[in-house]
Write a structure and sequence with these properties.
The protein is α/β, with parallel strands linked by helices. The protein has 8 helices and 11 strands. The strands form 3 sheets. Strands 6, 7, 8, 9, 10 and 11 form a 6-stranded parallel β-sheet that branches. A 3-stranded antiparallel β-sheet has the order 2-1-5, with helices on one face.
Length: 258
């Protein structure tokens, strides 16, 4: 039997890991997903860890050949067996790498107006940029996605912040939810690396104004490349602080230097 897995990522993005043996599916996808929702995706010789918010699994007797049919057509009449497979493998999950909670004003709409789609896509691309850079430091980016309400939102946010090694916060066009998430992380003593683009995403051409009154350095950036470079630099400068062992909730807050 061949296992075909569909990784659903934040922002409704999808990645496919297909034509796997049962052992490969368990080792590469199922057990990591059960452990902490992080799956390493490999393409063109590059491996990137991804937060997976939902997982679909299909089993077939034949391999999928992308030259003969689109994947959606190939599995159109197949059952998603993820629930049963995950239930059987639930006790086999090992520990993996550092979790980093990303505070981000998830705005716009994927299927809204052209402007709403532009805003949605920009914040989604920022998350991907952060995700790729964090992956180079054995970290995985965690975002609570409004498009996949799998659980009580506030409880999930608190749980993920508590589990995070540190936090990355984009305060561009910040929303009340950003205040809540960053403030909660501060209260738990989580180190926070702050960012904001020099211009507003919602109102292009307007200079970004930070209304969040906190004692921190904000890394300003003009494009995704600069965002990645500054995150990489901040992690390098603050590695001792960001990756220090933590037990429970620290009493003091910590802000990573730019």
């Amino acid at each position: 039997m061949y296992f075909h897995t569909v990784l659903v990522l934040p922002g409704a993005r999808q990645r496919y890991m297909c034509n796997l043996s049962e052992e490969e599916a368990h080792a590469q996808v199922i057990l990591p997903f059960l452990n902490d929702g992080i799956v390493k995706y490999r393409r063109a010789g590059k491996t990137t860890p991804h937060q997976v918010v939902d997982l679909r699994i299909y089993k077939t007797k034949e391999q999928w050949n992308h030259r003969q049919a689109r994947f959606e057509e190939f599995v159109a009449k197949k059952n998603n067996v993820a629930k049963a497979v995950l239930a059987r493998a639930a006790k086999r999950a090992p520990k993996v790498q550092h979790r980093v909670f990303v505070v981000m004003p998830i705005q716009g709409e994927r299927y809204g107006t052209m402007n709403e789609q532009r805003i949605h896509d920009e914040f989604n691309r920022r998350f991907v940029a952060l995700e790729n850079t964090l992956g180079k430091h054995q970290c995985v980016a965690i975002r609570i996605d409004k498009e996949v309400p799998l659980d009580d939102l506030v409880r999930r946010i608190k749980t993920e912040i508590a589990r995070a090694q540190f936090v990355v916060a984009d305060l561009t066009d910040e929303r009340p939810s950003c205040y809540f998430e960053a403030g909660y992380a501060e209260a738990l003593g989580k180190p926070i690396v702050y960012f904001a683009s020099k211009e507003s995403v919602v109102t292009p051409g307007q200079k970004t104004r930070i209304h969040f009154d906190v004692h921190m350095n904000v890394n300003l950036f003009s494009n995704h490349k600069e965002l990645q470079e500054k995150l990489d630099l901040a992690i390098g400068k603050n590695r001792g602080l960001l990756f220090a062992p933590r037990e429970g909730n620290a009493a003091a807050t910590a802000t990573a230097k730019a």
